[in-house]
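[agent] plan:
  1. take the single chain provided in the ticket
  2. run structure prediction with default settings
  3. attach structure tokens to the ticket
  4. add a short note for the reviewer (M.T.)
[agent] executing step 1
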Amino acid sequence: MTTLFGRRVLLRPLVSQDFWVWQEVRRRNRGWLTQWEPSRSPGQPDPIEDSGAFAARCNARDRDRQLGTGHGFGVFVDGNFAGEINLNSIQRGPFQNAYVGYWIDEAQAGNAYTSEALVVVCRFAFEHLKLHRVQAAIIPRNHNSHRVVEKIGMRAEGTALRYLEINGVWEDHVRYAFTSEDWDELGSGLTAQWIDG
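[agent] step 2 finished; step 3 output follows
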């Protein structure tokens, strides 16, 4: 199991035994998070309320990791579960790309834990997975999420219209990215600031 460390955060894959702490955080943050997430497919069990669905979700992330198509991590602060960050849809060949997504417990928001976790994941993506590009896509009005990527200097690359279905609506998204060349230039400073500092 891959465990990654920041200065204040620990990232590790979630396992079925994490269900109860994950459920508590997700239930408490339902209104905070639903506005930024895709709708659940009709007829699919809700992993927030169904431990079997949560275990299946963990197993799917394990398969992604084994296939090299994704890496999902729980974010832990002082040993307590605080959110998630994921590298999704890893593509090799000429693209060498992954998409990053994240969320944080509202009670932990404003402490820059997510920016720190993003630096940790970028270092993993560029230095371990040897990817060329990591991208994030953020709804324009999600100011908190924009601050996460802006704090670490990810480049805004424009707005994709009606990019993803979010909570039943096709939403525009601002696309941000780092490439390995950006990491070569900025990575040591980001590591010193967010991980080793």
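[agent] step 4 note for reviewer: Residues 4-196 form a domain with the Aminopeptidase fold (CATH 3.40.630.30).
[agent] ticket updated
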